[in-house]
C-alpha cells in the first residue's frame, strides 16, 4: 500500500512538472526577508512574521506567479544577505546613494521622517550641533547610523539590534538620546503605552524615501514590483493597507490622504460641470423655439450663476476680474461690484504670493489649460481659505479678447474633515438636480441668454463620466462625456427604436431599471437612482451608478430623461472583496464564525417553529500549536486545508443537512440540522475523530502529520434558544472533552453549567482575595542528600478564604490560569518570597536558597523579567539564591521567547529548575539549549521506586542524563526511608517530601532553618 502511494506521488509530481514545462510558467521562488523587530513594518510573534512589509509583499508577489519564501533576521544580517545574493528582496529599505551601488530599488512606496527622541522632561540643551557631547543611540546598520556618522559627524555612539532595544535603552537611561524613524518610534511608543516616557525633541531632521530593495542578480523583479505597486495604488488597495498600519501613528499619512481628498473634491466639481453640461445641452434644444423661451433662458442663466456651488471667475490676461459669481461672494465676503474691474492679486492674494500668481497667469496664456492648482486667498474679514482651481484660456470670447475661465472649489473644510466633504457632496448633488429643474422657468430674452451661453459653455467642455438623454418628443437618445467612448453607443443610436438603450444593460438588470423608471413616471417623481451593469466595448460588464432626472411638460407627461452615470466598478469589486473577507476564512474558504452564527440563529428559530432539533459540533485540534512550532506555519496551514477537504467530503456524503465553518485558529464547527434522533450525532462525532486521527501527507515537510481532536456537542433548541447559549454550552462540553485527556467528544450536560458557575464564583472570590491579601506562603524544605542538611525551601501558595478555611491549590490555580489572575497572584508570591528571604538573611540564615513556582502564562508575560529585576532591587536579595520552577511544556513552548527570558534572568544569577520532569514535553535536546540548572523528578516515579523496576530504571536514567548535562536532580514526594536510601544509592542530589517535613507556615519553617540538620 505504501509503495502504491509512493508511485502515485512520484507520478503526480512528474505530471505537475510536465504540465508546468508545457505551460512555460512556474511559481518562481522569491526569498523575501525582513527585519525581525521593526514594527509596524515587520516583526515576529508566536513564530510568525507580521507587519506592513509582509502584507505588502504578499499583495505584490502574485501567488500564481511567485512562491514567496518569508524569513526574518536582525537588520544588519538582512541587508548583508541581500547584497550577497542569499535573499532576493526586502522592504522597506531607505534609498541612499551608497546602497544604489549594491542593490536595485523599486519605486518609492513612502517617505520616512527621522527625529531625535529623549526621555520625558530631559532638560539638556541638546541640538544637532552639539549631539556628539551626548550619549546617542541608533539602530545597527540602519540609515540613521550612516546619517549620524557621516552627516552629523558623531563618531562615538551606541548601536542596538532592534527598535525595542533602542527605546528601552533610552527609557532605562543607558543613553540620553535616540535617532530613529518617527513612524516606527511613534508606532511602538503608542502601542506599548510608553508615550509619556519619551519626547520627540527634534522632529523631521531629515526625510528618506523607502522602497523594495532587490538583489542585483534579480533585476527582472524591479519592473514587476513597480507594475504591481502601480496596480495596488490605482485600485486603492495600497492606501487601505497603509491606513491599517499608519493612520493612528503617522501624521504624514493624513497629508497623503488630504491629497486624495482634494482629488475627490475635484471629482465633485466635475459633477457640477456635468449638471451644467446637461443644462447647456437642453438650452441649445430650447433655443430652437426662442420666441417662447427667451425669458426662460435668461432666468436659467441667472439661477445658474447664483446657485453654482463653486467659484466661477472670468479674468482677462492682466488679471482683472470680468465676472464674479454669487458663490465667490459667499466665500470671500466681497460683493461683485466691489471687485469687478480690479486686479485679482491686489484683493485676494497675500503679498508674498502675488508675483507667483501673476506668473501663473502668464503660464495659463502659454499652455491654455492649467488644472489641479491650489492656493490660498484672503477673504474680506482676513480669513485664509484654500481653493482648488481649474483654469482654461478662451482665445475667442464674447468680449473679443482672450479670457481666463477659472472654476474654484473651496477645500478648506475638506482638509479639516472628510465628513464635511461627504455632506458637501450631498449638497452638490442636490444643487445639480435643482439646476436641471430651473430649465422649466427660463424666461429671459434670447440676446442675454446667448451671452450667458457663451460664458458658461467654457465651463463644460470636459466631462469625465457618461450622460445619456432620452427625448420622448423626438424619440431619440443622445450620449455625452468621455466615458461614453468606452461603450458601444453607435449600435444603440443606429436603431430606429429609441428605447433600444435598454439593451445597454445586463439582462438581469433590464427589468429592474425599466420598472424603476416606469414607477417614477406613474408617481410623477422627478428623481430616480439605481445601480446596474453595462457592457463595455471589450465585452466586460461594468457597474454604474445612475442619477436620473425626469422632466415633465405642463400636462404632466414626461418629455426628457437625463442621467449622470458614474463608473462604480471598482467600488463594487471592493465591496465584494470586503464582504467575502467579512464572512469567509481566506485560508480554507470555509464560512467564518460571523456567518456561522448568523446561520445558526436562523436555524434555531426554524427549529423552534417547526418543533425539530439540531446540533452544534465544536471541534478543536489537539496540540495544533506543536505542529506550527515543529514544522512551521506553512505546514500548519497546509494541514488545515487538507483536513478541511476530508471533513467536507465526509459531510457531503451523509444525509443530514450540514453547515461547516472555521470559527477559530484551530477550531471548526459543524451544524447538523433536522436530526431525527440525537444518537445520529454520536456516529458523526466518531467519524470526525477518525478523520483527525488519520495520517495527512504534508508537501511542505514531505511527510505525514498525525494529530487528534477534541469535540463538544450541544443540541438546539433543547440546550439553548440563542446562539450565545449554544456556544457557551458547546464550549463547556469541549472543555470537558479536553479534561478527559483529549481525542474524545462530550455532549453538553446541565452539570457542566453548574461546574462553570462554580468556576465563575471562584474567579470572583480570587479577585477579592487579591485585594484583601488572603494569600499566605507555606514552605517545604529541600534536603541535600550528601549531608542531610536543608539546602533550600520551596514556596507554596495557600488561600485562606474567610468562612471556608484553606482552599486547595488544585481547585483555584486552574481558574487563576484560565482567567489571567495568575499573573497578579504570581507577582504577589514573588514579592512575599523575596521579602521572607531577606528577613531570614537579616536573622543570620544566610545559607538558604528559595524556589518559586512559575506558571507558563506568568512566565511569558510581557516585561516579566523586568518585574523580577525590579523586585530584586527593591528587597536587596541575592539573585544567586533564587530558583524558579517551570514545567517542561512551559519551557519549550515558544522556545525562542523562553530562551530570551531565561538567558536574561540567568545573567542576573537566577537559576531555573524543570518541575515534574518526565510527565510533560520531555526533550533533553530542547532543555540542553536552555540555561537550566536542574530538574525535579515527579512524585509519580518516586512513589513506585521501591516496587517497580521500571520506575527505578526511569529515575536512574533521568539522573544519569541530567548529570551528563551538568544538571542537579531533586526528587519530589519522598515519604519513606527506603525511598531515601534508593535515591542516595543511585546518586540523586536533593530530595523533598513528607519524610522530612510537610509544607508549613513561615513561623514553623524558621525553626527547621535554624536547626538546618534533618534527622529521619
TrEMBL record:
Q: Where is the signal peptide?
A: 1-25
Domain PAS: start-end pairs? 296-368
Ribosomal protein keyword on record:
no
Q: Outline the extent of the GGDEF domain.
A: 612-750
Which residues are in the PAC domain?
371-423, 528-580
Which UniProt key words apply to this protein?
A: Coiled coil, Membrane, Signal, Transmembrane, Transmembrane helix
SUPFAM superfamilies xrefs: EAL domain-like (SSF141868), Nucleotide cyclase (SSF55073), Periplasmic binding protein-like II (SSF53850), PYP-like sensor domain (PAS domain) (SSF55785)
All copies of the EAL domain together span 759-1013
TM segment ranges: 261-284
Put simply, this protein is called: Diguanylate cyclase/phosphodiesterase with PAS/PAC sensor(S)
Q: Which organism is it from?
A: Caldicellulosiruptor kronotskyensis (strain DSM 18902 / VKM B-2412 / 2002)
Amino acid at each position: 500500500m505504501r509503495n502504491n502511494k509512493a508511485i502515485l506521488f512520484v507520478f503526480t509530481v512528474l505530471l505537475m512538472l510536465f504540465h508546468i514545462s508545457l505551460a512555460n510558467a512556474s511559481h518562481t521562488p522569491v526569498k523575501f526577508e525582513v527585519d525581525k523587530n521593526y514594527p509596524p513594518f515587520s516583526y515576529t510573534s508566536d513564530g510568525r512574521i507580521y507587519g506592513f512589509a509582509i502584507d505588502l509583499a504578499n499583495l505584490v508577489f502574485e501567488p500564481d506567479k511567485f512562491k514567496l519564501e518569508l524569513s526574518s533576521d536582525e537588520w544588519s544580517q538582512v541587508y548583508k544577505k541581500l547584497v550577497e545574493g542569499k535573499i532576493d528582496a526586502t522592504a522597506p529599505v531607505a534609498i541612499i546613494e551608497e546602497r544604489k551601488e549594491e542593490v536595485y530599488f523599486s519605486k518609492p512606496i513612502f517617505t520616512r521622517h527621522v527625529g531625535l527622541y529623549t526621555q520625558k522632561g530631559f532638560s539638556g540643551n541638546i541640538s544637532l550641533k552639539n549631539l556628539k557631547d551626548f550619549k546617542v543611540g541608533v539602530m545597527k546598520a540602519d540609515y540613521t547610523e550612516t546619517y549620524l556618522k557621516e552627516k552629523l559627524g558623531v563618531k562615538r555612539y551606541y548601536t542596538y539590534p532592534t527598535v525595542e532595544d533602542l527605546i528601552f535603552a533610552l527609557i532605562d537611561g543607558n543613553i540620553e538620546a535616540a535617532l530613529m524613524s518617527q513612524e516606527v518610534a511613534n508606532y511602538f511608543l503608542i502601542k506599548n503605552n510608553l508615550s509619556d516616557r519619551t519626547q520627540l525633541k527634534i522632529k523631521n531632521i531629515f526625510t528618506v524615501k523607502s522602497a523594495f530593495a532587490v538583489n542585483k542578480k534579480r533585476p527582472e523583479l524591479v519592473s514587476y514590483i513597480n507594475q504591481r505597486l502601480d496596480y495596488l495604488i490605482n485600485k486603492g488597495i495600497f492606501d487601505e493597507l497603509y491606513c491599517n498600519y499608519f493612520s493612528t501613528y503617522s501624521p504624514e499619512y493624513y497629508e497623503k490622504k488630504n491629497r486624495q481628498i482634494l482629488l475627490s473634491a475635484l471629482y465633485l466639481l466635475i459633477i457640477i460641470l456635468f449638471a451644467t453640461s446637461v443644462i447647456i445641452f437642453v438650452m441649445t434644444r430650447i433655443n430652437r423655439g426662442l420666441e417662447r423661451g427667451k425669458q426662460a433662458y435668461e432666468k436659467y442663466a441667472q439661477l445658474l450663476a447664483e446657485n453654482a456651488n463653486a467659484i466661477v471667475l472670468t479674468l482677462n490676461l492682466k488679471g482683472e476680474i470680468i465676472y464674479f459669481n454669487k458663490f465667490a461672494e459667499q466665500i470671500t465676503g466681497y460683493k461683485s461690484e466691489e471687485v469687478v474691474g480690479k486686479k485679482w492679486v491686489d484683493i485676494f492674494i497675500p503679498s508674498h504670493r502675488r508675483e507667483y500668481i501673476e506668473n501663473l497667469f502668464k503660464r495659463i496664456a502659454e499652455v491654455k489649460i492649467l488644472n489641479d492648482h491650489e492656493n490660498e486667498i484672503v477673504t474680506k474679514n482676513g480669513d485664509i481659505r484654500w481653493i482648488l482651481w481649474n483654469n482654461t484660456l478662451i482665445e475667442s470670447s464674447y468680449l473679443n479678447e482672450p479670457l481666463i475661465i477659472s472654476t474654484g472649489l473651496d477645500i478648506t473644510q475638506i482638509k479639516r474633515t472628510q465628513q464635511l466633504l461627504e455632506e458637501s457632496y450631498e449638497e452638490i448633488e442636490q444643487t445639480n438636480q435643482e439646476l436641471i429643474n430651473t430649465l422649466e422657468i427660463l424666461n429671459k430674452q434670447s440676446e442675454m441668454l446667448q451671452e450667458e451661453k457663451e460664458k458658461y459653455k467654457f465651463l463644460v467642455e470636459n466631462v469625465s463620466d457618461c450622460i445619456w438623454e432620452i427625448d420622448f418628443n423626438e424619440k431619440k437618445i443622445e450620449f455625452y462625456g468621455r466615458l461614453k467612448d468606452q461603450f458601444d453607443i453607435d449600435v444603440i443610436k443606429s436603431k430606429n427604436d429609441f428605447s433600444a438603450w435598454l439593451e445597454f444593460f445586463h439582462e438581469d438588470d433590464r427589468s429592474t431599471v425599466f420598472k424603476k423608471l416606469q414607477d417614477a413616471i406613474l408617481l410623477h417623481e422627478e428623481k430616480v437612482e439605481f445601480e446596474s451593469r453595462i457592457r463595455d466595448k471589450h465585452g466586460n460588464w461594468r457597474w454604474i451608478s445612475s442619477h436620473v432626472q425626469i422632466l415633465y411638460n405642463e400636462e404632466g407627461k414626461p418629455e426628457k430623461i437625463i442621467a449622470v452615470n458614474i463608473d462604480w466598478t471598482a467600488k463594487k469589486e471592493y465591496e465584494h472583496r470586503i464582504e467575502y473577507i467579512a464572512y469567509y476564512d481566506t485560508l480554507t474558504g470555509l464560512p467564518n464564525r460571523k456567518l456561522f452564527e448568523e446561520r445558526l440563529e436562523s436555524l434555531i428559530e426554524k427549529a423552534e417553529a417547526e418543533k425539530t432539533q439540531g446540533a452544534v459540533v465544536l471541534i478543536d485540534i489537539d496540540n495544533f500549536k506543536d505542529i506550527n512550532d515543529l514544522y512551521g506555519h506553512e505546514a500548519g496551514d497546509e494541514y488545515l486545508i487538507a483536513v478541511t477537504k476530508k471533513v467536507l467530503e465526509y459531510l457531503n456524503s451523509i444525509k443530514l443537512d450540514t453547515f461547516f465553518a472555521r470559527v477559530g485558529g484551530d477550531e471548526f464547527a459543524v451544524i447538523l440540522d433536522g436530526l431525527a434522533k440525537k444518537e445520529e450525532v454520536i456516529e458523526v462525532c466518531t467519524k470526525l475523530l477518525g478523520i483527525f486521527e488519520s495520517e495527512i501527507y504534508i508537501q511542505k515537510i514531505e511527510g505525514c502529520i498525525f494529530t487528534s481532536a477534541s469535540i463538544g456537542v450541544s443540541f438546539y433548541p433543547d440546550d439553548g434558544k440563542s446562539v450565545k447559549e449554544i456556544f457557551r454550552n458547546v464550549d463547556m462540553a469541549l472543555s470537558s472533552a479536553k479534561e478527559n485527556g483529549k481525542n474524545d467528544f462530550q455532549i453538553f450536560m446541565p452539570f457542566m453549567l453548574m461546574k462553570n458557575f462554580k468556576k465563575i464564583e471562584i474567579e470572583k472570590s480570587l479577585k477579592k482575595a487579591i485585594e484583601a491579601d488572603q494569600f499566605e506562603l507555606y514552605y517545604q524544605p529541600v534536603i541535600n542528600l550528601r549531608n542531610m542538611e536543608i539546602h533550600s525551601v520551596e514556596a507554596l501558595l495557600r488561600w485562606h478564604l474567610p468562612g471556608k478555611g484553606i482552599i486547595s491549590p488544585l481547585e483555584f490555580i486552574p481558574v487563576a490560569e484560565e482567567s489571567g489572575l495568575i499573573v497578579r497572584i504570581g507577582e504577589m508570591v514573588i514579592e512575599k518570597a523575596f521579602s521572607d528571604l531577606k528577613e531570614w538573611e537579616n536573622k543570620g540564615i544566610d545559607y538558604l536558597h528559595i524556589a518559586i513556582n512559575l506558571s507558563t502564562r506568568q512566565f511569558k508575560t510581557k516585561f516579566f523579567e523586568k518585574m523580577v529585576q525590579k523586585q530584586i532591587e527593591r528587597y536587596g536579595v541575592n539573585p544567586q539564591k533564587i530558583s524558579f520552577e517551570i514545567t517542561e511544556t512551559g519551557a519549550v513552548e515558544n522556545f525562542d521567547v523562553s530562551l530570551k527570558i531565561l538567558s536574561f534572568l540567568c545573567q542576573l544569577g537566577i537559576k531555573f529548575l524543570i518541575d515534574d520532569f518526565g510527565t510533560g514535553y520531555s526533550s533533553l535536546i530542547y532543555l540542553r539549549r536552555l540555561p537550566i540548572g536542574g530538574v525535579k523528578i515527579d512524585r509519580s516515579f518516586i512513589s513506585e521506586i521501591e516496587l517497580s523496576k521500571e520506575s527505578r530504571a526511569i529515575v536512574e536514567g533521568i539522573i544519569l542524563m541530567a548529570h551528563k548535562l551538568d544538571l542537579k536532580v531533586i526528587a519530589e514526594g519522598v515519604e519513606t526511608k527506603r525511598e531515601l536510601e534508593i535515591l542516595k544509592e543511585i546518586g540523586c542530589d536533593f530530595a523533598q517530601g513528607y519524610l522530612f517535613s510537610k509544607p508549613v507556615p513561615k513561623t514553623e519553617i524558621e525553626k527547621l532553618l535554624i536547626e538546618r540538620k534533618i534527622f529521619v
